[in-house]
## 1
Amino acid sequence: MAQISLYIDDAMVERLSAAAENLNCSISKYVAALVSEKLSNNESEEANKKLMLKQLCGALDPAFSIPSEIPWNSGYA
């Protein structure tokens, strides 16, 4: 298992220590759980975005077409 060193200010260490103690685990396990949760949430959010994009494909009216070029003097000034 890999080891990581973190540089955290004293106030944060106290908060981490208290939170880990409340869950009866080490600070290391608590931080690892937080990181794992954050990474899972990010992956889930990314997957949800891709699914939503996939569901939106073809949502426009099939008769809709993008014009090849809009003339500069189209009269909509």
Note: Residues 25-50 form one domain.
## 2
Amino acid sequence: MFQQMAGFTLLEGVLVLTLSGITTATGLSYLDNWIETSEKAVLHYSQQVAMSSMQTHQMWAKAAGREPPEWQDVISLNGINSQALLNGGLALRTPHQSLCVSLDDRAEISQHC
């Protein structure tokens, strides 16, 4: 009735290919969601590290009677793009999803990015 193809019928071969295509498409969808979630988590973590580091350096400068530090004096994050802004702030960006958060010179979240 059905032609044998290496131990499988043609119908079984078509079903296997269809199911593998559906599984692959579903997996890729979840992979995109995982990448976005992962980058959001990395951005949030980097933001927390940057804020804590700036606040700590500000306290040290105040205790020593020095000028408050600038971002380039305080922060060096690996794995995420960071850029000191002209207004004294810091912009953190993720490479794949283009997510961004901006911190002002007081280590508070700013509206621009």
Note: The chain has one domain: 12-110.
